[in-house]
Amino acid sequence: MKRILVIHGPNLNLLGKREKNLYGEVTLEEINKELKALGKMLKVLVDIFQSNSEGELVTKIQKSMGKYGALVINPGAYTHTSIALRDAILAVEVPTVEVHLSNIYQREEFRKKSMLADVVVGQITGFKVDSYLLGLRAAAKLVR
Ligand code: DQA
After folding, report:
1. pTM (2 decimals)?
2. C-alpha 131 to ligand 1 mean position (Å)
3. Nearest residue to 12 (alpha-carbon basis) of 29, 37, 33
């Protein structure tokens, strides 16, 4: 069975409570349920990981090598700062879809730059929960 890892970065554990106008009312648990259900439909096995720590995220990406056919990642604020996450994705060569709940290109200037943009296959940004679900659909097609 094809395996896909979904990675949630920092502060995404607070979804449903944080900045609801931007990120919606849905909790991370609810998003994860929807991802698992869609995974069943698409016949892919979906594992899910969340961390607030950049190092833990890097380690998880490193360990994805040979284990997962594709990654879906919402790197949260590390999107805009993390050369380490970028390098990890480059190192493992696992095709990756970058997703964001909000549209990062319609917000503050500093959010318009993604350190990952040119090492991922593509970005889905601005569709709230659907960004993840569209991201999973894209990842399912990328699995080698
Ligand atoms: C986010 C956008 C980031 O700029 C922000 O720091 C987040 C969430 C999104 O999903 O819209 O934490 O990645």
Report:
1. 0.97
2. 12
3. 29
For ligand 1, pick from 14, 74, 82, 106 the residue to mutate: most ligand atoms within 8 Å of CB. Answer: 74
CA-only gyration radius of the chain, Å = 14
Residue from 17, 52, 100, 129 whose mutation best tests the ligand 1 pocket (most atoms within 8 A of CB): 100
DSSP letter, residue 68: -
Residues annotated as catalytic (active site), given as ranges: 23, 100
Atom of ligand 1 nearest to the CA of 125: 11
Nearest one of 127, 129, 125 to 111, comparing CA atoms: 125
Question: CA-to-CA distance for 136 and 133, rounded, in angstroms?
Answer: 5
* Tens digit of pLDDT at every position of the chain (144 positions): 799 999 999 999 999 988 888 888 899 999 999 999 999 999 999 999 999 999 999 999 999 999 999 999 999 999 999 999 999 999 999 999 999 999 999 999 999 999 999 999 999 999 999 999 999 999 999 995
